[in-house]
C-alpha cells in the first residue's frame, strides 16, 4: 500500500508541476495600431463596413496569448477572421475572446468583489470624516459588504478603490490564444465587420453645351 501511495503521489506531483510550467511559460504579446502595415475599409449600406487590418507581429514559438488592440469600437466579434499572409500554416488561433469594459462605477466595483475597499462617510454629528474597511461580497441587485464580521446590505459614503484593476480593458481588444511555429514575424491580416459607420457622397454633373458629354465631381 505504501508503494502504491508513493506512486500516486508522485504522479500527482508531476501533473501539478507540469500545469504550473505551462502557465509560467505562457507569453502575452500586445499588438497596437503602431504595427499596422495597411488598413482597408469597405463601407456598405445599412450602417456597417468590412475592415481589413494588416500588421507585422513578432510572436514567440509555441502557445501564447495575443492581445489585438485598437480595433473598431462597434466590432462584431463573431465575424473576426485572422490569418498569416506569409506563414499561413504556422499560425493557428486556438481560442478567441472579445474584451471591452466601459469605465463606470458599477463595472469597477464588479472587479473588486471579494476584495477589501475603503468607504468614506462624513459624520455630520461629530463633523468629521469616518473611514471603514469593507469586503465587497456582491454587486448583484445592490451592494453587500462585510464589515467587522457583520453583513451590510448597502453602506452610505464614498467607495474608494486602490486603483484600476490590471484586467480592466478600457479599449476594444481581441484576445487570442495562438500556436506559432514560425521563427520570423508574421504579417497578420485580421478582417471583421463593424457597425455604426456610414457613407454619404453628393455628386455634381455638368453637361456640355450640346448635352453630349459631362463631367462628374463628388463631395464625400
Account of the protein in words:
The protein has 220 residues and is mainly beta. The protein has 2 domains: 24-100 and 169-196, Immunoglobulin-like, CATH 2.60.40; 105-160, no CATH class. Helix content is 14%, strand content 47%. The protein contains 2 helices and 15 strands. The protein has helices at 2-25, 105-110, and strands at 27-31, 36-44, 48-57, 62-68, 81-84, 91-99, 116-123, 128-138, 144-147, 150-153, 158-160, 173-180, 186-195, 202-207, 214-219. The protein has a 5-stranded antiparallel beta sheet with strand order 10-9-8-7-11, with no helix packed on it. A 4-stranded mixed beta sheet has the order 1-4-12-6, with no helix packed on it. The protein has a 4-stranded antiparallel beta sheet with strand order 2-3-13-5, with no helix packed on it. Strand 9 (144-147) and strand 10 (150-153) form a beta hairpin. The radius of gyration is 28 Å and the shape is flat. Residues 1-25 form the signal peptide. Keywords: Signal. This is DUF4139 domain-containing protein.
